[in-house]
Amino acid sequence: KPFNAEGYTHPHSEWMAVTEGSVTVAAGGKEKLYTKGDIFLIPKGTTYDWTMTEDFKKFFVIVDHAEPEAAPTEVISYDRAQPCAGDEEYWFFCTGPEDLAPGSAVPTAASHGYMTSSCGQFSAGLWTCTAHETVMGEYPVHEFIFLLEGSIILTVDGEEHVFEAGDAFFIPRE
Question: Left if phi > 0, otherwise alpha if psi is -120 to 50, otherwise beta: which for 70?
């Protein structure tokens, strides 16, 4: 339903991924419309106007910074045109052929980091990778994923979980 908030000061840093509808955020003299598939961060302490003219749904992650002086001070928007750096074979959790399933293609991956906390325990960014199949044991980090394009099939204890563009899911560290 339509909703407006003017001059609201955000009590925490919040990453948001729009899954339905749209919202206009005005902060620091800039105004931006966010629609399905857009991702953005409103930092703690940011004063802004929030305007929804239709039903709206988001997935969010709230972050409090151990060192507030290192926190972002402006709204950060995921830019769909932002190129990812890298184009390297393999990736962080798949470091060589021993991590690939038999017959899998060798992946090419690239990424663009948007934010890393000063303590290094939280980061947000964009990652892209070509199709491949990885065989993994323990997952080394907690990871929230909002899938922008393509699909992922995770097999856990013999059960397949299929995720498509627009889905959000969480993989716990083991």
Answer: alpha
Amino acid sitting at position 45: G
Least confident of 10-19, 41-50, 58-67, 132-141: 58-67
Place of tokens 């750096």: 85
Burial class (CB in 10 A: 0-12, 13-18, 19+), 108: middle
Contacts 24+ apart (CB under 8 A), 122-130: 122/63, 124/15, 124/41, 124/61, 126/78, 126/82, 126/84, 127/84, 127/91, 128/84, 129/91, 130/105
Tell which residue, 65, 23, 71, 27, has the closest CA to residue 47: 27
Tokens of 160: 């397949």
Residue 128 buriedness (CB in 10 A; 0-12 / 13-18 / 19+): middle
Whole-model pTM: value is 0.67
